[in-house]
Amino acid sequence: CSNARFNPHNVQAPVDVDTKTITSFWPPLKKAMSDHKPEFSLEHPPWRMMFPSEHDIKDRTNLLSYEDATYLREKHAAFVTDIPAYPKNAFKGKGVVMLAGGRYSEFAATSLGMLRESGSTLPVEVWRRDEREEKHEWCDEIEAEGMACRRLSDYMDTDILEIEDGKEMKVLVMLFSSFEEIIFIDADNMALQPPELLFEQEVYKETGAIIWPDFWTYDNIDWLDYIVGASDEPSEKLWKLKSAESGEIVWDKKRHWRSLALATYYNYYGPNLYYTLLNYGYAGYGDKDTFPLALRALNEPFHFVHVDPESSWSNGRKGDRRVGMMQMTPTATTASESQAQVDEQGQREAFFHHSTTIKWSHREFLCIKCLPIWYSEDATAPFVSAIENTAHELYSRLLNFVRVIDEDSLLPFMANSTGDAEVRMWRAMEHAACRSQAWRHPRACEFGRRYVVKAFGMGFVDAR
């Protein structure tokens, strides 16, 4: 294996930005959100192991009265009226935006390695909450690869202890990104093809936004469409549609500025209201459906990918233990192309692998006697990696040099240029463990290399 991290195209990091111009919209947007704050809240629903029945979903209508829903509808309409104009000359160019910080920075190290190995030449912004999540050596390293570190605290007044739920930060980093056209990618999501190909898709050129589906349909409260002005009465329309997955989003901020601002409103008041309006308590509670909701509320065009996601399964547990979610390449040639037309094409190539269950980092897999990461892990409890925990599902596989992902669930969806995605993941982790000044860990490096040699029959060279 050659080094997984390189910058052969000399991608320049977006380090010089005009923060003052970029943040010019924030005071009026924050004021509008404050002026139209809904003085109404809904409790976080209890976690559910099974998707709710339609009967259970219908019962949630009683959480709001007609008067409650009308009050929220009026607040929503007033905010939409006060959305500030798009800030001219604030944003430029195209790039990838990723939210890291805490333990997610190590997942991001793997994901960014996969990004560059895919052949991507896009500049990247890697965001964290504030300086307390800073890892200075890493920021210096990734700048050489065309990536820049950003702190959300440099753009808005925020304190970690005031953020009720980290999910609402995704839309904020999309807002404050210096790029006009962005591809947001979760830190635990890995690009299998160059993401810039998505900007060339006709469905993106036509609409300016691409949203991918989740595994399940909506389970929202039926008052939702009434509240956001998409219906004049409670509506069950969404219950028949696939919900969204926000591990990857393509968004033109100039064309969809108002809906991005509206999604900010939904997330700003998400933990106390909108997340519960959108979700019954099954998997997916959080920001994921706020983006298409904002687009629909303002009747703005977007492309919802017609091709369903596929699961990558744990080796030896196919159909039982999911490793991650593979989101497919959009195959529609126009935004209006039907699902039946897409199905006839029969093209199902994975574009992203979102590690929803097993998180890929050398620390999670192989680190020995590592310290906890501040904030995201209990500082008083020892960190235990998979290789240290005999009860961990990966323990025996790592010791016996057996691949993690079931081949039959992964390889059929790889594009010709992708190869075996698991090999790429291990190469990116090898870089972090062995070659990165910020992340390297000699024992993890030694074992990781031995694993790759025996599991995949590949060796390593140290020359960069």
From TrEMBL:
Signal peptide: none annotated. One of its GO terms (molecular function) is alpha-1,2-mannosyltransferase activity. The lineage of its organism: Eukaryota, Fungi, Dikarya, Ascomycota, Pezizomycotina. Pfam families: Mannosyl_trans3. Belongs to the MNN1/MNT family. It comes from Teratosphaeria nubilosa. It comes from the Eukaryota. GO terms for biological process: mannan biosynthetic process. It is a single-pass type II membrane protein. GO terms for cellular component: Golgi membrane. Pathway: Protein modification; protein glycosylation. It is found in: Golgi apparatus membrane. This is Nucleotide-diphospho-sugar transferase. Keywords: Golgi apparatus, Membrane, Signal-anchor, Transferase, Transmembrane, Transmembrane helix.
